[in-house]
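I have been asked to look over a protein record a colleague put together. Alongside the sequence sits a line of tokens, each denoting a local backbone shape. I have pasted the whole thing underneath without changing anything:
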Amino acid sequence: MLFGFFLAAWVEILVHYGVPLPKPITQAMGFIAFAMEGLMLMFHLHDRTMVETHIHQLLVLTIGCSMIGTIAECFNPDNFWFILVRSYFALIQGTWFVQAAYVLWPTSTNPIFIWDPNSDRSMSLLTMSYAYHLAGNAVVLIIVYLLVYKYLSPSIKPKYYQEEDDEANGQYKLISNGYDEDSGL
């Protein structure tokens, strides 16, 4: 299952050292790695309980979304939203593995924490847990991106902060400043 990611990592190393490969090869290899993992998990469901099957189906759904984000990033690697989608679903995939482990192999013998493997109620609770899992990972990703923005924004100057020397050189540029009270923006 992890051989695709191993192969993708070697391709990334080759690209890093300047081997002439097509530009979107790293994203394409990521797509192939996710496809291999999804294929393995999809056919890993034989003779499983309802809860185990549902956990794997939710994971395959997440891997499919990762594949869509990765193939979109392959065609436009500089698009922030494609990178964000791929990052989000990769994060969900990793954290869902941990969540699934606690469902399938509980660490407690307390009956509250033990799931009924063949219950429709357990499947409904598992779907609700997955939805909360999606929301929680979105919050985590938003916090991470806000922290990165906060610590990197002082070193990056936006284009609307230009020096006042333009008027001194005899050049006049009309710049609409988003923070200017007089412009009405």
User: Anything to note?
Assistant: The longest helix spans residues 120-152. Confidence is low (pLDDT under 50) at residues 174-180. The CA atoms of residues 107 and 113 lie 8 Å apart.
